[in-house]
Amino acid sequence: MLTKEIINSVPKVLLHDHLDGGLRPKTIIELAENLNYKKLPTKDPEELASWFHSGANKGSLVEYLKGFEHTTAVMQTKDGLERAAYEMLEDMKRDGVAYVETRFAPVYHTTKGLYLEDTVTAVLSGLEKGKNKFGVGYGLILCGMRNMKNTLEIAELAVNFRNDGVVGFDLAGEEGGYPPKKHLEAFQFIQRSNFNITVHAGEAFGKESIWQAIQWCGAHRIGHATRLTEDIVFDDEGEVVKFGELAQYILDKRIPLEICLLSNLHTGAIDKIENHPFGILFKEKFRVTINTDDRLMSDTNLTKEFLTAVKYFNLTLDEIEKITINAMKSAFIPYKERLRFIYEIIKPGYQKVRNNLVN
User: Which of 61, 103, 311, 339 could form a disulfide with 204 if both were Cys (CB 3.0 to 4.6 A apart)?
Assistant: First the structure.
């Protein structure tokens, strides 16, 4: 029986986590007071947590994203950004995460006078302090927004900080009406710089979004990819008959998929967890990883996401380890660093838990 305690205790890897989607309610309230921000619905931390979660759990990505108005509004100072990043790593430590790649959109944190560079420097400072205190490895991904035209500027910003802890570039935001190919200049700059690309695709829009992200934009990983099943043919029993060209390509090229179970339910990308394509994709040997997306909005952490996968898809401890190793292989840090995490932290961590279970 895989308990919450067992899953919490094994080392885990998180590749898709939004910094502004994971703030502590108490921190939001205190940062709001410091900035004289008056729009929070309550100053009670428990009530605020409940408000964020109920607002996000309406089956709509547009509704889900509304909570970010408040989190980004209070992340407008260097101290606030540094604190959010530091506390995130402390929360990762409690969650048993050995390595995390968190992401944020610098453009949303400049309303009080910070420059884009200031926002990145502040977040990196908090992450580095958190790493030194809690021993959790990190990488930072910068998000360009699909509904904005300054994505090239964010791509250049990401590359400028590549030696300071920024590990990649992402395209985020509402999918409908904002195809990734409209941001080719940014992606081509990243490609020419030999840098890393992940793209939100196939969450609220179809397989075409995933195809564009890979074939037009050069994505090395795909965020969500929930709609990839549109390119898979099933029989009446729900068994796979054949893959379309896109699904086959993703499978063959081992393109990592950043699966977010609970947030996909909350945004309406799926109707219920047991129908999440994760089960099929994992069974068919796609390189799936399990992630939190937005811990505050979805009231989740990585332990809870894996517990959900255990409950609905019968994951074993060996399979959790396999997914964790796949995630570490897919991280945007140098190869030797990935190997160090796998052989010095992940594998020994799982073996220790197995030994304890036997004894």
Answer: 61
